[in-house]
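hey so i finally got around to running the thing on that chain from the lab meeting. sorry it took forever, my laptop kept dying and i had to restart like 3 times. anyway pasting the input first so we r on the same page abt which one it is
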Amino acid sequence: MEHLPDHIIFFDGHCHLCSGAVQWILKRDKRRVFFFAPLQSGTAATLLPPEMSDLQNMGTFVYVRNGVLLIRSTAALAMLNQLGGIWSVLSWLKVVPRPIRDAAYNLVARNRYKWFGKREVCMMPQPGNAERFLD
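ok and heres what got predicted. didnt touch it at all, straight out
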């Protein structure tokens, strides 16, 4: 890929919650700025720094915005802000200290398979959105 998109979201492709979040973003991203790749993909292995390779086991939401890597609650809030409209209002949650936000995030991440289930294979893009998936 010669030019990388400015807004890339990496997600756990085996997680029902994570795949559902991607579908939620796709429906609300009217400007079509977000692109997606599973953490289990070759794109993630190529674009994410080596020290991030264990993220797929941690259920971490990764948002690369204009080359800057954001993770966990900070990534989620930045994504909501980028969506704009009513969703950007939720970015006020940034006033909550990051360790507290990430503790709540990590609780859900640790239990995501138990609470929401796990896919055997990564999510396949729906027709009309395939070009927004990098892998």
